[in-house]
Amino acid sequence: MSEELTVDTEVATPIDAELVRALEAIILVATDPVPVDLLAQILGHPEAVVESLCASLAAAYEEAGHGFQLVRVAGGFRYQSHPDVAVYVERFILDGQKARLSGAALETLAIVAYKQPISRAQIASIRGVDPDGVLRTLQGRGYIDQVGRDPGPGQAVMWGTTPAFLEKLGINSVNDLPPIVEFIPGADIVEALEVGLRISKNDDLDVSTPEPVSVPVEAEHDESGT
After folding, report:
1. Can you tell me whether residue 212 is helix, strand or coil?
2. Is 197 helix (H, G, I), strand (E, B) or coil?
3. 208 within domain boundaries
4. Are both 75 and 113 inside the same structural domain?
5. For 193-221, how does the pLDDT look when each residue is reduced to its tens digit (9 = 90+)?
6. Residues spanned by the domain of 167
7. 88-126 pLDDT, tens per residue?
8. Starting at the edge strand that comes first in sequence, how are the strands of the sheet with 118-119 ordered?
9. Pairing relationship of beta strands 118-119 and 157-161 according to DSSP bridges
10. What pTM, to 2 d.p., does this model score?
11. pLDDT (average), residues 154-175
12. What DSSP string runs through 144-162?
């Protein structure tokens, strides 16, 4: 049974739980504040209804005492941690900096370092997985940050490395990074690997050539019996 939430518009409009969930999900997965006109287009409701719904949700979160807020930022809406729990969030981020980066984080950091400025979609295309969580981790560590927007359609956020990244590696600029070709094995190495794999595969099959067996042949007798 779906609950109904009444938002304050010129004419009170009942909003079912599915619409509320859809709005929450969209804002949750977005990397940037979501404009009201885009939310209205996706949800199929007037902007005034979406505005009022966001305001009602923000008030409900605040009243319930959640650790997050729904706020208007840069002309759109996004979720962010509540200022009251900032000390815990800061502690989490600082403690996280002591941990080693995962393989996925290192891979993403390398992509950003060598391909910057690069968009989230381009990173996802290279890695084949959603990079949002890893990007947030790297940004929280201070290794990458938003460096601008793509001038093309959609104006995607572009990512690049930070001075902290250079300091961590002990280099003056990204131009001091080793050429990426140094990490690509040469043709002779690839061929040797292929040969090794073929040999290993044959060894696993354990197929050996049988040794010839000597079969005694009885002497033939001539018709005379000699």
Report:
1. coil
2. helix
3. no
4. no
5. 666 666 544 554 454 555 555 555 554 44
6. 100-181
7. 888 877 765 566 788 889 999 999 999 999 999 999 999
8. 118-119, 157-161, 144-149
9. antiparallel
10. 0.44
11. 88
12. EEEEEE-SSTT--EEEEE-
